[in-house]
Amino acid sequence: MRTKNLARAAAAEAPKDLRSWLVHLAERGKLAVAREGVGLADELAAVSKGLERDQAVLFPKPGGHDIPVVANLFAARDWVADSIGVSEEQLLTHFLAAARNPLPSLEVTSGPVQEVVHNEVDLLRQLPIPKHNERDSGPYITAGLLIARNPRNGIQNVSIHRCQISGPNRIGILLLPRHTLSYFRMAEEAGEALEIAIVIGVHPALLLASQAIAALDEDEMGIAGALLGHPVDVVKCKTNSVRVPAHAEIVIEGRILPRVREPEGPFGEFPQYYGPRADREVIEVDMVTHRDQPIYHTIVGGGYEHLILGGVPREATLLQHLRRSFPNVLDVRLTRGGTCRYHLAVKIDKITDGEPKNIIMSAFGAHYDIKQVVVVDKDVDIGDSEEIEWAVATRFQADRDLLVVSGALGSKLDPTTSNGISAKMGLDATVPVDAPELDFTRIHVKGEEEVDLATVLQEDPNAAFSRVLARAR
Length: 473
Ligand code: MN
Fold this sequence. Notes:
Elements: E1 2-3, H1 6-11, H2 18-27, E2 31-33, H3 43-50, E3 56-59, E4 69-71, H4 77-83, H5 91-100, E5 106-107, E6 116-118, H6 123-126, E7 140-141, E8 144-149, E9 156-160, E10 163-167, E11 170-173, H7 179-189, E12 194-200, H8 204-210, H9 220-228, E13 233-236, E14 243-245, E15 250-264, E16 267-268, E17 274-275, E18 278-290, E19 296-297, H10 304-325, E20 329-334, E21 343-348, H11 355-366, E22 372-377, H12 385-395, H13 398-401, E23 402-409, E24 421-429, H14 453-456, H15 461-472
Helix pairs in contact: 5-9, 5-10, 8-9, 10-11
Manganese (II) ion is lined by residues 157, 179, 214, 220.
């Protein structure tokens, strides 16, 4: 972190925060507003899911609570690109460039996120925390950036975890074996709690950056700065040394307690199943701060926003991994049907037969979640699952083009695995290099892309049809 310098002053530009993104969406007709008083349990999530492919949605006075809730910050993949100011074609390469060239945060002495301070914590009274899927154990904070500091060197990590409200100042948390857990183990071995903050209501770039596959001790907030094009202003928490985005909406300050585990779950997860209940780590909350009149962001577990938020940064990492060995890999997509985690489509400019199978093996090695890989030629739109299926239907023979690996490591959240031990399947759906030209030439109507139906079709089809019939009589 650097101290505030003249660069920002010269830029004289309002920082990009959640509100700036909501204004951007509203100006484009992409923000729906619900009637006041939608229920926080189930109803708010049901409305959000109903709109998840179309619009973001703001809920004033949810459950009678003063603080509004917003959901669906991304309702389409191109919104992700829009949020960081690039086209969808540039999305993955821009994300990789930001991960390679982070812009460190700027520490400031005060920020709007500390305008209101609650010394006495009562989470459900102070914040409108929804319950999402039917069999979730109760209300969950789902869109909170968990910021933790390495107890040995002070470097921060940013990630998202599901956070169950277990009591007025108590949160049950799922820590998968990644960076937050590494920091917590360091603290716990020393018999100490790990200082953390949960940050709710930030610009989408911060949410995306939190999902980057970065190394331990690479502060994801720097990636967020690079995505935004300006450093993120951060301010020190009031009860601990964690630095949080100054223009966030809400901050929950607390500690992950050493040698305490309590029941957490079940909770509806990205595979469209419930993650089970088990004894997990516990956060004790010390303080809640927020803006004057804050906005609370929630993500419906397993909903489209959840899938896309995790999917895009993973795609960027997979693209980078594959291109290192195969420069002719053009694009990758984690398909929605594969929950944006398990099924990968790879588009290549095919040079030699056989190489698609090497690409499949490389993809299996890139991330244990990858369960199925389909490799297709450059004429296939991998953003369209029908196109991928068409390539399999017409360019794939199972006895020749199928690769199966058994007994590999997969996702523990996939209920067909045996505690994470999984089979992998690869499909080479590319055209053989020496195939006769016309055999695999896609049919095409000349002019089909250019035709302007508005100028060709008559305005009143019923009247026009009557005239045609009258003439025929
Ligand atoms: Mn990390």
